[in-house]
Structures are given as C-alpha cells and as structure tokens.
Model the fold of this input.
Amino acid sequence: MRVDDFDFFLPPELIAQTPLARRDDSRLLVLPKNNGLVEHKKFYQIVDYLIPGDTLVLNNTKVIPARLFGKRADTNGKIEVLLLKRIVGNTWETLVKPGRRAKLNSLLVFGDGRLLGRVKGETDFGGRIIDFEYEGDWHHLLDELGQMPLPPYITAKLEEKDRYQTVYAQYEGSAAAPTAGLHFTPELIEKIKRKGVNLVYITLHVGLGTFRPIQVENVEEHRMHEEFYQITPEAAGLINQAIKNKTRIIAVGTTSVRTLESAVNEHNLIEPGQGWTNIFIYPGYQFKVVDGLITNFHLPKSTLIMLVCALAGKERVMAAYKEAIRLRYRFYSFGDAMLII
Done:
C-alpha cells in the first residue's frame, strides 16, 4: 500500500488559521459506515446522531506550553525546542530547530538564564535528549516561558491559549491538542449526557507519534513513535460494559481510537492501567473496540487520514474529503469535524 494513495490537494485558504467564536458552531460532515448518504450539519447537532446507551470516549490530556525559544550559550544563536515527552525527572525528549546546532553537550539558555538545557544525546528520529536546570516550580516557569505548540500550518497568532485545549482537559503532558475534542462545549456535553449517552475519559499524551510525517513510500514500512496512555479501572469498567452490552462505542479523536485499540486484551476487553503505544492503524486493520469516530479533517498522506480510512473505507473517506473541499469546509486543527457512525 503506497503512501501516495492517501494524497489529495487542499487549497491553502481552507486551512483554518483561527478557531470559531463558538466551539460547537463548526460544520459537521456525517459519514455513515453502511454506505448511507453523506449529510452536512453543525457540530452542535451531533446529539441528534447519538442514542441512549452509546458510550462516547474522550481524551482528557492537557497541552503544555511545550515550545521554548532560546539561544545557544556559546554563540547566542537562536534555537527553538519542542518538548515531546518527559523521560525521567528533568530530562526530556525534544525536537530542536535548527537541530544541527544542538550538538552534544551544547548549553541552551531560555528566559535570560532562568531555564538552562544541556543536550545529552540524540534520538532515532533526529530529536535531542535535554537535561533542564532551573529554580522554582517547573509548571509555573513553563507557563511563563513556553508557548502553545501550534502546528506549523497555523501562522495566525492564537489570542486565547485555552482555545487550543479541550474544555475537559485535565492531565498535562501533550505536545499537541486532541483536536476532535475542541468542538465540545460544557453545554453540549450536558445535553449529550441528558440524552442517556455515557461519557468516559481516558488519557493519551499526544506526541511525535500522532503528528510525525511519513517518510517512506510504503505504508507498511512506517513506524510510529511511542506515546503514553492511561485508562483508569472505572473507565475500563464502563467501556467493557458497553462491549458486553454490544452498544456503540464512539471515540472522540484518533488518539482515543489508538488508546482503546492498544489496551484491548485477548478477550476483547479493555485492560485498565498505563503504558506506551506505537500502534499504527491503516486500511486492513480489524477494529476490536471502536464502532464510530468523531474526528477533524486531516493532512494528506498522514497516519491520521489512514486511520480514518481504516474505519470507514478508503474510497468513501477520500470521496468525503473531495466533497468537503468542494463545499469549502475548514481543515486541520481549528477546522470542521466529521462523524463516522
């Protein structure tokens, strides 16, 4: 299977640069799995497609201000660091730009010396391992010095940092937002609950695995980068009850899909606990847990669009994308949504 099979042309003006005034006012393309007709709605109308007994699984990770701008101590050359995941203590796996200047033992300076970083090694994907030194509270310092790690295709300034967080974000650790969840408001969540839909929260900290570009020609040769996930016993119990009752399990976002499909055991039930996943879902994959999906419109040739194609069929998904482009849907992180059900 070739990566180019998942390519399409997106007019640049359809890349959403800013969020809408109201989260749930985005458009919603409804794509039935059973070859039904595509429908075009508003996101707040998603409640009409949910039925009592459905289980909606959401990723409650919280984005950290993971982008740091500093300089090299020896040359004063500018440097940019993106925190990907904490390895242990103050040691982080990172991406550095320009990477060639972040040589082993280089000292990096942030915030006029309030935060120092020493390059201790390289990763197999071209990143850097950095040991940080600072005084005081890490979270407060990061909040002051760091910026929200918006994707490179968003060039507009984000006026409100909270708009790159879901309203239910709880556990810090992500280098990018689980963007399908950005459409939900507290009011919409309450309306969904009142309909008799079960809401279950799990955690996957979004890192390089989710947004790393594919650099091989054949899909099967791509290897995902590991990301940390956690499922509480309570969450696992609720999901397993839905599995046993054979009621629909609808994942909010590809990260929720990957977490659920990573944590399923040989009895096709969810194991509570925590771990690391590098699961790569593409057409041909047999889903064990997930029945439906709420997701945004993704980049061409990305692992994300491949996962969506695995669930709904490549031809149907690519045709739906063509229709979305024709109707001027907004794409990517701050864009519109799709419901596959």
Remarks:
- The chain has two domains: 3-63+160-340, 67-145.
- Residues 32 and 50 are 13 Å apart (CA to CA).
